Amino acid sequence: MRVGSNPEKGKHIQDKFYHRIIVPIYVPHLNDYFKFGLNFTKLCIESLLKTIHAKSAITVVNNGSCREITTYLQELYTKGKIDQLIHFKSNIGKIDAVISIAKTTSEDLITITDGDVLFKDGWIQEVEKVFVNFPEAGMVSPVPHGTLFMTHTSNTIFDALLKGNLKFQSLCDQEEMLQFANSIGRQSSMYKNKQFLENQLTVSRKGFSAIVGCGHFVSTLRKEVFKHTPNQKSKLAYAASADRDYIDQPLEKAGLWRLATVGNYAYHIGNIPENWIEKEFLKIQSSEKEELKIPNSKRIQIPYFIKHFIVNRLLLNKFVRPVLFDFLGLKKEK
């Protein structure tokens, strides 16, 4: 039996946010590899809560985590600290945990981050500034990476070459780039060739620069990128092929750029406590954060596969690449 009329009927719901951060958490137990999983989950979420602005919201996906993690996340949601909490009884994989949310959420910007990331003050503003200064951007990371400028960056290189704002520069903090390499266990291999530690491929416009290329462990994408993702599930717990099919290739198909901030605004904290992690966390200041107006996306209307062929098969082959790099400011002796 119903009496009266539902007061919500016909009411228009206005969007509160324009930036959503999705954090999948998988900590099945607190032993062995996951021994410090609760500590690092708290560091990740608390650093997010301290650094986001009022027009951003956090979604946490509890991907089959243990009771301790589940209790902590539920407390956050009950206290209103996170906007959305989704529970799965078992691990459905990182990509499947986030893509369905990314495809249906209303926010224009969507950050996908691992659960072992420590965010620094200013990360969200610096990422959004890249979108403001480069409306062509479709994916931006707050962590610069000197060796990924040739990975799924056909749109970026092709368009920036045409517009004349692509060149090698020495802009990034080398110590922090090496610290990231160390945090993922690649301290001896990532920058074995020091030329890309010392020189980064950049795009620049009106005095503002960004780094070409970025990784997956934390990055912000335009929602329209997810229009190009497969409709079927990945069914992979974690694999590079899932990142390729659901993030990299959709970004290329969308015709948008792949960039990173010049400064380092997040850390990968891994699974072993180190003194520097707590010190960096204590540096974070809770304060009012600037909100930016993000422009609509912009792109050169040439099919991505044509750009891919020109960039990867012609410009970056072993014969032409040295000439191109020299033209862009990376001298042959380097």
UniProtKB/TrEMBL annotation:
Regions that span the bilayer:
none
Q: Where is the Glycosyltransferase 2-like domain?
A: 41-146
Q: Per its UniProt record, what Pfam families does this chain match?
A: Glycos_transf_2 (PF00535)
Which branch of life, at top level? Bacteria
- Matches recorded under SUPFAM superfamilies: Nucleotide-diphospho-sugar transferases
InterPro entries according to UniProt = Glyco_trans_2-like (IPR001173), Nucleotide-diphossugar_trans (IPR029044)
UniProt protein name = Glycosyltransferase 2-like domain-containing protein
Species in which this protein is naturally found: Planktosalinus lacus
